[in-house]
Structure prediction request, 482 residues.
Amino acid sequence: MKKIFILLLLLCIPVFLGLFYGLQLDQALTQAPPRQADRHDLKPVTSFVSIPYSIDLLELQQKLDESIANPIDTINKECKLIKSKYVKANAQCIGEITKRGPITVVGHENGITASLPIAFRLTARTRGRIKMQETATGAMTVNATITPGMLENWEPNTTLSANFHWDKKPQIKVFGMSITFAGLLEPKLRENLNKAVERFNQRLKEKLALRDKAQKTWDKLSTAKNIRKDPEVWLTTQLEKVYFEPFKINSTTLSGSIGMKAKILTVFGEPPPISTAALPKLNLSRYADGFALRVPLVLKFDALRDFLKEKVAGKTVPLTGKDGELTLYIKDVDIYPSGDNIAMAVFFKAAAQNQLLSTSGSFHITGKPVFEETTVKGKPKVTIGLVNVQFGRQVDSTVLDVGTWVLQDTVREYLAKSFIIDVTDKFLNVRRKAEAQLNQRMDKGQIKGQLNKATLENILIYEKWLMINTVVSGKFGVELDV
Prediction:
Protein backbone atom coordinates (compact mmCIF):
# COMPACT_ATOMS: atom_id res chain seq x y z
CA MET A 1 0.00 0.00 0.00
CA LYS A 2 2.81 2.36 0.90
CA LYS A 3 4.56 1.54 -2.38
CA ILE A 4 1.39 2.28 -4.35
CA PHE A 5 1.01 5.69 -2.62
CA ILE A 6 4.64 6.60 -3.40
CA LEU A 7 4.13 5.55 -7.03
CA LEU A 8 1.00 7.71 -7.35
CA LEU A 9 2.82 10.63 -5.75
CA LEU A 10 5.64 10.33 -8.27
CA LEU A 11 3.14 10.23 -11.13
CA CYS A 12 1.42 13.40 -9.88
CA ILE A 13 4.61 15.45 -9.56
CA PRO A 14 4.88 16.15 -13.33
CA VAL A 15 1.24 17.15 -13.39
CA PHE A 16 1.63 19.66 -10.55
CA LEU A 17 4.90 20.91 -11.99
CA GLY A 18 3.25 21.39 -15.38
CA LEU A 19 0.40 23.34 -13.85
CA PHE A 20 2.74 25.38 -11.65
CA TYR A 21 5.23 26.23 -14.35
CA GLY A 22 2.49 26.70 -16.91
CA LEU A 23 1.07 29.38 -14.63
CA GLN A 24 4.53 30.91 -14.27
CA LEU A 25 4.97 30.83 -18.04
CA ASP A 26 1.63 32.49 -18.57
CA GLN A 27 2.50 35.21 -16.05
CA ALA A 28 5.97 35.70 -17.51
CA LEU A 29 4.78 35.97 -21.09
CA THR A 30 1.66 38.08 -20.64
CA GLN A 31 3.35 41.21 -19.35
CA ALA A 32 2.12 43.21 -22.32
CA PRO A 33 3.81 46.25 -23.84
CA PRO A 34 1.80 49.38 -23.03
CA ARG A 35 -1.05 50.41 -25.30
CA GLN A 36 -0.20 53.92 -26.35
CA ALA A 37 -0.10 56.01 -29.50
CA ASP A 38 2.29 58.93 -29.59
CA ARG A 39 1.18 62.32 -30.85
CA HIS A 40 2.53 63.15 -34.28
CA ASP A 41 2.78 66.75 -35.43
CA LEU A 42 3.24 66.52 -39.16
CA LYS A 43 5.63 69.03 -40.63
CA PRO A 44 4.19 71.05 -43.49
CA VAL A 45 5.55 70.67 -47.00
CA THR A 46 6.36 73.70 -49.14
CA SER A 47 4.72 74.10 -52.53
CA PHE A 48 4.54 76.67 -55.30
CA VAL A 49 1.29 77.32 -57.09
CA SER A 50 1.76 78.81 -60.53
CA ILE A 51 -0.76 81.32 -61.92
CA PRO A 52 -0.07 81.77 -65.64
CA TYR A 53 -1.12 84.73 -67.74
CA SER A 54 -0.70 85.88 -71.33
CA ILE A 55 -1.57 88.81 -73.57
CA ASP A 56 -2.06 88.56 -77.32
CA LEU A 57 0.06 91.36 -78.80
CA LEU A 58 -2.19 91.57 -81.87
CA GLU A 59 -5.12 92.31 -79.57
CA LEU A 60 -2.95 94.81 -77.68
CA GLN A 61 -2.02 96.44 -81.01
CA GLN A 62 -5.68 96.87 -81.87
CA LYS A 63 -6.52 98.36 -78.46
CA LEU A 64 -3.58 100.76 -78.57
CA ASP A 65 -4.47 101.87 -82.11
CA GLU A 66 -8.04 102.54 -81.00
CA SER A 67 -6.80 104.55 -78.02
CA ILE A 68 -4.68 106.92 -80.13
CA ALA A 69 -6.73 109.97 -81.11
CA ASN A 70 -6.47 111.54 -84.54
CA PRO A 71 -5.18 114.17 -84.66
CA ILE A 72 -2.68 113.00 -82.09
CA ASP A 73 -1.94 116.53 -80.92
CA THR A 74 -2.09 120.15 -81.98
CA ILE A 75 0.37 123.01 -81.81
CA ASN A 76 -0.51 126.64 -81.28
CA LYS A 77 2.34 128.72 -79.96
CA GLU A 78 4.67 131.56 -80.77
CA CYS A 79 7.88 130.47 -82.48
CA LYS A 80 11.02 132.34 -83.23
CA LEU A 81 11.81 131.91 -86.88
CA ILE A 82 14.92 134.10 -87.09
CA LYS A 83 16.99 135.45 -84.25
CA SER A 84 20.16 137.37 -85.06
CA LYS A 85 21.75 140.78 -84.52
CA TYR A 86 20.20 142.12 -87.65
CA VAL A 87 16.98 140.25 -88.24
CA LYS A 88 14.34 139.00 -85.83
CA ALA A 89 11.19 137.28 -87.01
CA ASN A 90 8.59 135.71 -84.75
CA ALA A 91 5.54 133.82 -85.91
CA GLN A 92 2.44 132.20 -84.61
CA CYS A 93 2.83 128.50 -85.38
CA ILE A 94 -0.38 126.52 -85.72
CA GLY A 95 -0.41 122.91 -86.74
CA GLU A 96 -1.32 119.33 -85.94
CA ILE A 97 0.19 115.87 -85.68
CA THR A 98 -1.86 113.15 -87.33
CA LYS A 99 -1.67 109.42 -87.89
CA ARG A 100 -0.86 108.37 -91.41
CA GLY A 101 -1.25 104.68 -90.76
CA PRO A 102 -2.06 102.10 -88.05
CA ILE A 103 0.29 101.28 -85.21
CA THR A 104 2.20 97.98 -85.39
CA VAL A 105 3.32 96.06 -82.31
CA VAL A 106 6.03 93.38 -82.43
CA GLY A 107 7.42 91.48 -79.47
CA HIS A 108 11.05 90.44 -79.11
CA GLU A 109 13.50 89.32 -76.45
CA ASN A 110 14.17 92.83 -75.15
CA GLY A 111 10.60 94.09 -75.03
CA ILE A 112 7.83 95.31 -77.34
CA THR A 113 8.45 97.70 -80.21
CA ALA A 114 5.55 99.85 -81.36
CA SER A 115 5.89 101.74 -84.64
CA LEU A 116 3.54 104.54 -85.67
CA PRO A 117 3.75 106.53 -88.91
CA ILE A 118 2.70 110.14 -88.42
CA ALA A 119 2.26 113.27 -90.53
CA PHE A 120 2.99 116.84 -89.48
CA ARG A 121 1.51 120.06 -90.87
CA LEU A 122 2.32 123.51 -89.52
CA THR A 123 1.55 127.03 -90.69
CA ALA A 124 3.69 129.94 -89.53
CA ARG A 125 2.23 133.47 -89.67
CA THR A 126 4.58 136.31 -88.93
CA ARG A 127 3.58 139.46 -87.09
CA GLY A 128 4.88 142.99 -87.27
CA ARG A 129 6.20 144.88 -90.26
CA ILE A 130 7.09 141.77 -92.23
CA LYS A 131 3.96 139.87 -93.18
CA MET A 132 4.31 136.33 -94.40
CA GLN A 133 2.70 132.94 -94.10
CA GLU A 134 4.37 129.63 -94.85
CA THR A 135 3.18 126.05 -94.40
CA ALA A 136 5.51 123.14 -93.70
CA THR A 137 4.66 119.46 -93.95
CA GLY A 138 6.60 116.46 -92.76
CA ALA A 139 6.42 112.73 -92.19
CA MET A 140 8.12 110.46 -89.73
CA THR A 141 7.91 107.03 -88.10
CA VAL A 142 8.01 106.88 -84.31
CA ASN A 143 9.66 103.71 -82.98
CA ALA A 144 9.14 103.15 -79.28
CA THR A 145 10.57 100.12 -77.46
CA ILE A 146 8.67 99.28 -74.28
CA THR A 147 10.12 97.00 -71.61
CA PRO A 148 7.29 96.01 -69.25
CA GLY A 149 7.89 95.06 -65.64
CA MET A 150 6.24 95.09 -62.22
CA LEU A 151 6.85 96.83 -58.91
CA GLU A 152 6.58 95.32 -55.44
CA ASN A 153 3.25 97.14 -54.98
CA TRP A 154 1.75 95.13 -57.90
CA GLU A 155 1.78 98.15 -60.23
CA PRO A 156 3.17 97.82 -63.79
CA ASN A 157 6.51 99.53 -64.35
CA THR A 158 7.39 100.17 -67.99
CA THR A 159 10.59 101.68 -69.33
CA LEU A 160 10.61 103.44 -72.68
CA SER A 161 13.21 104.19 -75.30
CA ALA A 162 12.23 105.96 -78.52
CA ASN A 163 13.73 107.17 -81.76
CA PHE A 164 12.30 109.26 -84.58
CA HIS A 165 12.93 108.45 -88.19
CA TRP A 166 12.15 111.42 -90.42
CA ASP A 167 10.94 110.52 -93.87
CA LYS A 168 10.53 114.21 -94.59
CA LYS A 169 11.49 116.98 -92.21
CA PRO A 170 9.04 119.90 -92.03
CA GLN A 171 10.77 123.09 -93.13
CA ILE A 172 10.16 126.44 -94.75
CA LYS A 173 12.35 129.13 -96.33
CA VAL A 174 12.45 132.65 -94.93
CA PHE A 175 14.60 135.19 -96.73
CA GLY A 176 16.32 132.31 -98.46
CA MET A 177 17.13 130.49 -95.22
CA SER A 178 15.82 127.00 -94.49
CA ILE A 179 14.02 126.75 -91.16
CA THR A 180 13.02 123.32 -89.78
CA PHE A 181 10.36 122.61 -87.19
CA ALA A 182 11.74 119.22 -86.10
CA GLY A 183 12.86 120.71 -82.79
CA LEU A 184 9.33 121.96 -82.19
CA LEU A 185 7.75 118.60 -82.99
CA GLU A 186 9.94 116.12 -81.09
CA PRO A 187 9.23 117.42 -77.54
CA LYS A 188 5.52 117.19 -78.33
CA LEU A 189 5.98 113.62 -79.47
CA ARG A 190 7.91 112.65 -76.32
CA GLU A 191 5.17 114.18 -74.20
CA ASN A 192 2.62 112.06 -76.04
CA LEU A 193 4.77 108.95 -75.76
CA ASN A 194 4.93 109.35 -71.99
CA LYS A 195 1.15 109.54 -71.93
CA ALA A 196 1.01 106.44 -74.15
CA VAL A 197 3.18 104.56 -71.65
CA GLU A 198 0.73 105.49 -68.90
CA ARG A 199 -2.11 104.14 -71.05
CA PHE A 200 -0.05 101.01 -71.76
CA ASN A 201 0.55 100.46 -68.02
CA GLN A 202 -3.14 100.90 -67.31
CA ARG A 203 -4.07 98.52 -70.12
CA LEU A 204 -1.50 95.99 -68.88
CA LYS A 205 -2.85 96.23 -65.33
CA GLU A 206 -6.46 95.76 -66.48
CA LYS A 207 -5.66 92.93 -68.87
CA LEU A 208 -3.38 90.94 -66.56
CA ALA A 209 -5.26 91.68 -63.32
CA LEU A 210 -2.43 89.90 -61.49
CA ARG A 211 -3.30 91.03 -58.01
CA ASP A 212 -6.95 90.17 -58.45
CA LYS A 213 -6.11 86.72 -59.83
CA ALA A 214 -3.63 86.04 -57.04
CA GLN A 215 -6.10 87.13 -54.35
CA LYS A 216 -8.91 84.99 -55.79
CA THR A 217 -6.59 81.99 -56.09
CA TRP A 218 -5.37 82.42 -52.54
CA ASP A 219 -8.93 82.76 -51.23
CA LYS A 220 -9.83 79.45 -52.87
CA LEU A 221 -6.69 77.61 -51.80
CA SER A 222 -6.84 78.86 -48.22
CA THR A 223 -10.06 76.94 -47.63
CA ALA A 224 -9.41 73.64 -45.81
CA LYS A 225 -9.95 70.69 -48.15
CA ASN A 226 -11.38 67.44 -46.78
CA ILE A 227 -9.52 64.56 -48.47
CA ARG A 228 -10.77 61.68 -46.30
CA LYS A 229 -13.87 61.00 -44.20
CA ASP A 230 -12.86 58.12 -41.92
CA PRO A 231 -10.64 59.23 -40.33
CA GLU A 232 -11.19 62.91 -41.07
CA VAL A 233 -8.15 64.26 -42.92
CA TRP A 234 -7.81 67.86 -44.07
CA LEU A 235 -5.34 69.83 -46.13
CA THR A 236 -4.70 73.42 -45.11
CA THR A 237 -2.46 76.00 -46.75
CA GLN A 238 -0.59 78.98 -45.36
CA LEU A 239 0.60 81.64 -47.82
CA GLU A 240 4.17 82.84 -47.39
CA LYS A 241 5.34 84.75 -50.47
CA VAL A 242 4.26 85.72 -53.96
CA TYR A 243 6.89 85.75 -56.68
CA PHE A 244 6.90 87.55 -60.02
CA GLU A 245 9.15 86.47 -62.85
CA PRO A 246 10.12 88.76 -65.74
CA PHE A 247 7.75 88.76 -68.67
CA LYS A 248 8.45 86.35 -71.51
CA ILE A 249 7.87 87.97 -74.87
CA ASN A 250 7.84 86.57 -78.38
CA SER A 251 6.65 88.10 -81.64
CA THR A 252 2.94 87.72 -80.85
CA THR A 253 2.57 87.05 -77.10
CA LEU A 254 3.49 88.49 -73.73
CA SER A 255 3.29 85.77 -71.08
CA GLY A 256 4.56 84.69 -67.70
CA SER A 257 3.41 83.54 -64.30
CA ILE A 258 3.33 84.47 -60.67
CA GLY A 259 4.21 81.86 -58.08
CA MET A 260 2.56 81.57 -54.70
CA LYS A 261 4.74 79.92 -52.07
CA ALA A 262 2.63 78.18 -49.44
CA LYS A 263 3.00 75.63 -46.68
CA ILE A 264 0.60 72.71 -46.98
CA LEU A 265 -0.26 70.87 -43.78
CA THR A 266 -2.10 67.58 -43.31
CA VAL A 267 -4.43 67.76 -40.29
CA PHE A 268 -6.42 64.97 -38.60
CA GLY A 269 -9.74 65.62 -36.92
CA GLU A 270 -11.21 69.11 -36.97
CA PRO A 271 -9.54 71.54 -39.41
CA PRO A 272 -7.91 74.58 -37.78
CA PRO A 273 -9.56 77.97 -38.36
CA ILE A 274 -8.10 79.80 -41.33
CA SER A 275 -8.13 83.55 -41.79
CA THR A 276 -7.71 84.95 -45.30
CA ALA A 277 -4.68 87.21 -45.29
CA ALA A 278 -4.01 90.14 -47.58
CA LEU A 279 -1.48 89.48 -50.28
CA PRO A 280 2.11 90.43 -49.43
CA LYS A 281 4.37 92.52 -51.64
CA LEU A 282 5.59 90.98 -54.85
CA ASN A 283 8.96 89.27 -54.62
CA LEU A 284 10.70 90.19 -57.87
CA SER A 285 12.78 87.06 -58.29
CA ARG A 286 12.47 83.66 -59.87
CA TYR A 287 10.85 80.84 -57.98
CA ALA A 288 11.22 77.07 -58.00
CA ASP A 289 8.21 75.89 -59.94
CA GLY A 290 6.54 72.77 -58.53
CA PHE A 291 4.51 71.44 -55.63
CA ALA A 292 4.78 68.80 -52.96
CA LEU A 293 1.68 67.42 -51.30
CA ARG A 294 1.44 64.87 -48.49
CA VAL A 295 -1.38 62.40 -49.05
CA PRO A 296 -2.04 59.82 -46.29
CA LEU A 297 -2.66 56.13 -46.94
CA VAL A 298 -4.53 54.80 -43.90
CA LEU A 299 -4.62 51.22 -42.56
CA LYS A 300 -7.04 50.72 -39.66
CA PHE A 301 -5.99 48.49 -36.77
CA ASP A 302 -9.35 46.70 -37.01
CA ALA A 303 -8.54 45.70 -40.58
CA LEU A 304 -4.97 44.74 -39.62
CA ARG A 305 -6.33 42.59 -36.79
CA ASP A 306 -8.71 40.77 -39.12
CA PHE A 307 -5.91 40.29 -41.66
CA LEU A 308 -3.58 38.84 -39.05
CA LYS A 309 -6.25 36.53 -37.58
CA GLU A 310 -6.93 35.13 -41.02
CA LYS A 311 -3.24 34.50 -41.53
CA VAL A 312 -2.24 32.91 -38.18
CA ALA A 313 -5.25 32.11 -35.95
CA GLY A 314 -5.90 28.38 -35.92
CA LYS A 315 -2.48 27.61 -37.40
CA THR A 316 0.13 25.31 -35.89
CA VAL A 317 3.85 25.93 -35.88
CA PRO A 318 6.20 22.95 -35.39
CA LEU A 319 9.19 23.82 -33.23
CA THR A 320 12.21 22.11 -31.79
CA GLY A 321 12.96 22.61 -28.12
CA LYS A 322 16.03 21.39 -26.29
CA ASP A 323 13.92 18.55 -24.92
CA GLY A 324 12.49 17.51 -28.28
CA GLU A 325 9.71 18.37 -30.69
CA LEU A 326 7.08 20.93 -29.75
CA THR A 327 3.85 21.97 -31.50
CA LEU A 328 2.64 25.54 -31.10
CA TYR A 329 -1.05 26.07 -31.80
CA ILE A 330 -2.08 29.75 -32.18
CA LYS A 331 -5.56 30.21 -30.76
CA ASP A 332 -5.98 33.95 -31.29
CA VAL A 333 -4.05 37.12 -31.96
CA ASP A 334 -4.44 40.81 -31.22
CA ILE A 335 -2.59 43.87 -32.50
CA TYR A 336 -2.38 47.41 -31.13
CA PRO A 337 -0.14 50.52 -31.07
CA SER A 338 2.70 50.73 -28.57
CA GLY A 339 4.60 53.98 -28.97
CA ASP A 340 6.70 53.87 -32.13
CA ASN A 341 6.06 50.14 -32.48
CA ILE A 342 3.23 47.74 -33.15
CA ALA A 343 2.55 45.20 -30.42
CA MET A 344 1.19 41.76 -31.15
CA ALA A 345 -0.44 39.55 -28.50
CA VAL A 346 -0.40 35.85 -29.36
CA PHE A 347 -2.59 33.39 -27.42
CA PHE A 348 -1.30 29.85 -27.78
CA LYS A 349 -1.42 26.26 -26.68
CA ALA A 350 1.82 24.28 -26.77
CA ALA A 351 2.34 20.55 -26.41
CA ALA A 352 5.69 18.85 -26.20
CA GLN A 353 6.17 15.37 -27.63
CA ASN A 354 5.48 12.59 -25.12
CA GLN A 355 4.08 15.05 -22.52
CA LEU A 356 0.86 14.33 -20.70
CA LEU A 357 -0.26 17.98 -20.46
CA SER A 358 -0.20 20.92 -22.88
CA THR A 359 0.74 24.43 -21.82
CA SER A 360 -1.49 27.40 -22.60
CA GLY A 361 -0.61 31.04 -22.35
CA SER A 362 0.18 34.14 -24.31
CA PHE A 363 3.17 36.19 -25.26
CA HIS A 364 3.77 39.57 -26.86
CA ILE A 365 6.12 40.74 -29.56
CA THR A 366 6.81 44.26 -30.81
CA GLY A 367 8.13 45.48 -34.13
CA LYS A 368 8.57 48.68 -36.08
CA PRO A 369 6.43 48.97 -39.23
CA VAL A 370 8.33 49.82 -42.43
CA PHE A 371 7.51 49.92 -46.11
CA GLU A 372 9.40 48.35 -48.98
CA GLU A 373 9.22 49.37 -52.63
CA THR A 374 10.16 46.80 -55.26
CA THR A 375 9.54 46.15 -58.93
CA VAL A 376 7.99 42.88 -60.08
CA LYS A 377 7.90 42.25 -63.84
CA GLY A 378 8.30 45.94 -64.50
CA LYS A 379 5.46 46.96 -62.19
CA PRO A 380 5.77 48.65 -58.79
CA LYS A 381 5.03 46.71 -55.63
CA VAL A 382 4.68 48.22 -52.15
CA THR A 383 4.50 46.15 -48.97
CA ILE A 384 4.36 46.90 -45.26
CA GLY A 385 6.28 44.71 -42.82
CA LEU A 386 7.89 44.64 -39.37
CA VAL A 387 11.55 44.99 -38.43
CA ASN A 388 13.35 44.73 -35.08
CA VAL A 389 10.83 42.13 -33.93
CA GLN A 390 11.38 41.46 -30.22
CA PHE A 391 9.57 39.61 -27.48
CA GLY A 392 7.85 41.77 -24.93
CA ARG A 393 9.71 40.12 -22.04
CA GLN A 394 12.80 37.92 -21.92
CA VAL A 395 11.93 34.44 -20.61
CA ASP A 396 14.17 33.01 -17.91
CA SER A 397 15.66 29.64 -18.76
CA THR A 398 14.61 28.42 -15.32
CA VAL A 399 10.91 28.81 -16.02
CA LEU A 400 10.05 25.71 -17.99
CA ASP A 401 11.92 23.72 -20.54
CA VAL A 402 8.96 23.80 -22.83
CA GLY A 403 9.21 27.60 -22.83
CA THR A 404 12.63 27.68 -24.43
CA TRP A 405 11.04 27.57 -27.92
CA VAL A 406 9.87 31.12 -27.33
CA LEU A 407 13.44 32.28 -27.60
CA GLN A 408 13.96 30.68 -30.97
CA ASP A 409 13.92 32.73 -34.15
CA THR A 410 11.31 30.47 -35.73
CA VAL A 411 8.31 32.03 -34.01
CA ARG A 412 9.60 35.55 -34.50
CA GLU A 413 10.21 34.98 -38.20
CA TYR A 414 6.86 33.26 -38.67
CA LEU A 415 4.92 36.17 -37.15
CA ALA A 416 6.99 38.79 -38.97
CA LYS A 417 6.34 37.09 -42.32
CA SER A 418 2.64 36.81 -41.50
CA PHE A 419 2.46 40.57 -41.08
CA ILE A 420 3.70 41.42 -44.60
CA ILE A 421 0.86 43.37 -46.25
CA ASP A 422 0.66 44.25 -49.94
CA VAL A 423 -0.57 47.86 -50.27
CA THR A 424 0.30 48.34 -53.96
CA ASP A 425 -3.30 48.94 -55.02
CA LYS A 426 -3.83 51.47 -52.24
CA PHE A 427 -0.60 53.27 -53.19
CA LEU A 428 -1.54 53.44 -56.87
CA ASN A 429 -5.03 54.62 -55.91
CA VAL A 430 -3.48 57.52 -53.98
CA ARG A 431 -1.60 58.49 -57.13
CA ARG A 432 -4.75 58.24 -59.26
CA LYS A 433 -6.73 60.39 -56.85
CA ALA A 434 -3.94 62.98 -56.74
CA GLU A 435 -3.88 63.15 -60.55
CA ALA A 436 -7.66 63.61 -60.62
CA GLN A 437 -7.46 66.43 -58.08
CA LEU A 438 -4.74 68.16 -60.10
CA ASN A 439 -6.90 68.49 -63.21
CA GLN A 440 -10.43 69.57 -62.48
CA ARG A 441 -12.84 72.41 -62.94
CA MET A 442 -13.21 74.84 -60.05
CA ASP A 443 -15.53 77.77 -59.53
CA LYS A 444 -14.60 80.34 -62.19
CA GLY A 445 -11.36 78.63 -63.06
CA GLN A 446 -9.44 75.52 -63.98
CA ILE A 447 -6.86 73.59 -61.98
CA LYS A 448 -4.12 72.28 -64.24
CA GLY A 449 -1.41 70.07 -62.84
CA GLN A 450 1.09 67.42 -63.73
CA LEU A 451 2.06 64.66 -61.31
CA ASN A 452 5.69 63.66 -61.75
CA LYS A 453 6.15 61.16 -58.93
CA ALA A 454 4.72 59.75 -55.73
CA THR A 455 7.16 58.87 -52.94
CA LEU A 456 6.53 56.98 -49.72
CA GLU A 457 7.78 59.14 -46.85
CA ASN A 458 7.19 57.40 -43.52
CA ILE A 459 4.75 55.42 -41.37
CA LEU A 460 3.16 57.02 -38.32
CA ILE A 461 1.24 55.08 -35.67
CA TYR A 462 -2.00 56.44 -34.26
CA GLU A 463 -4.49 55.01 -31.79
CA LYS A 464 -6.76 53.40 -34.37
CA TRP A 465 -4.74 53.28 -37.57
CA LEU A 466 -1.40 53.36 -39.31
CA MET A 467 -0.81 56.33 -41.58
CA ILE A 468 1.56 55.80 -44.49
CA ASN A 469 2.54 59.23 -45.75
CA THR A 470 2.90 59.55 -49.50
CA VAL A 471 4.38 62.75 -50.93
CA VAL A 472 3.23 63.48 -54.46
CA SER A 473 5.10 66.13 -56.42
CA GLY A 474 4.88 67.81 -59.80
CA LYS A 475 3.68 71.08 -61.28
CA PHE A 476 0.49 72.86 -60.29
CA GLY A 477 -1.25 75.89 -61.71
CA VAL A 478 -4.55 77.73 -61.58
CA GLU A 479 -6.13 79.48 -64.55
CA LEU A 480 -8.96 81.80 -63.64
CA ASP A 481 -11.73 82.70 -66.06
CA VAL A 482 -11.50 86.24 -67.30
